[in-house]
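hey can u check if this looks right to u? its 404 residues, i copy pasted from the old doc so theres a chance i mangled smth
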Amino acid sequence: MRIFIAVRHSVYPKFYYGGLWSSNFYPALQQLGHEIVESQVDLMSASRFMQIADNFTSQEEEVRAQITQKILDEVRDIHQQKPIDLFLSYFYNSHFDPAGFEEIHQLGIPTVNFYCNSIYQFELVAQIAAKVNFSWHAEKDARERYLKVGANPVWVQMGADPDVYHPIANVNRQSKACFVGQRYADRDRLLAKLISSQIPLDLYGNGWHNGVSASASVQTDVESMEYLGRKLQQPGSIGSYAHTAWNLVKTEGAIAGFKRTIRQINYRQQSRKLDPILASVACGFSENLNETFSKYEVILNFSNVWADGRSGSKLIPHVRLRDFEAPMCRTCYLTGYTDEIAEFYELGKEVDTYTHPDELANKIKFYLNHPSEAEKLREAGYQRARRDHTWKNRFEQLFQEINI
């Protein structure tokens, strides 16, 4: 197939994970023999406000309209030169006017939009999902959300590339646990409890050393306090709290909104108390994930996200990219339990899971004290991930599901 692809939220890799999905998707599609035609339209100006679901300012509408027209012109010109068989995108509502899909469909080109934040940020893609031919979602439990807006959901989980994620030979493993990732949701609570329990542990990623929690939504490089007609609030400022409180009152009502605001303030204060504990084992950023994973006896992952992306809402577990990347690096992998993870691994034999903090601590101690059991888990998980959980497998499944 000849596939037109627009999945990079910025042409610059350091902004908005500009190279994340192209680096995951392209090798697999090329292995399957497909021709990739990458969009040359930079989505960065729209990515700056992709955390906005709707009610765009007139300036934001204009940015989206310009990007939409450029992509439509691009598709039309390329399709005229040689037919396009599939349009594959990773658009938020901010990136593309949903009405634009009609023009692509009139050219006879089927469309697929990928999205992997459907559990806690579905509203950011709802308008796109309703108009694209197929809404590819990674979270199994997100299906009902798509159906409610009239979308055609296709559940295909994420994967990993064995040429990118692989074990490193001749590295001595430390008798420690390790977590690589940003500070978010209940991760700091769980990790602080492990540290206080004297479990040997190292942390890599954003927020562990400087005490600043990372955002779960999108990166931002906007310095101005206003962008495209929308006033921006400095995170952690009094203005940001007031803005959040007002939005909560509007959406949840005066009493519920006030209570939620108090919970958020208390949560942030409690988080600050954990800063010294977490900083004591913070190691900065992992320069090479494969090497980092190879240095530790146990690799941890945390599955919870906030139900609406903000503290104070319900914690919901779901499968993450790391659930395939880490086992592919041949790790003794311990992650939060979900019904969905059990569909991809034999739990306790290929990867292991926990449902509460005490179980997490006990299982870490078990694998640190029984390296032979850790090695069994490591090898079995590695073989399963390489056999069944590559992006090549996922695209074969996707194309079968959509009958293309």
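Residues 212-224 have pLDDT under 50 and may be disordered.
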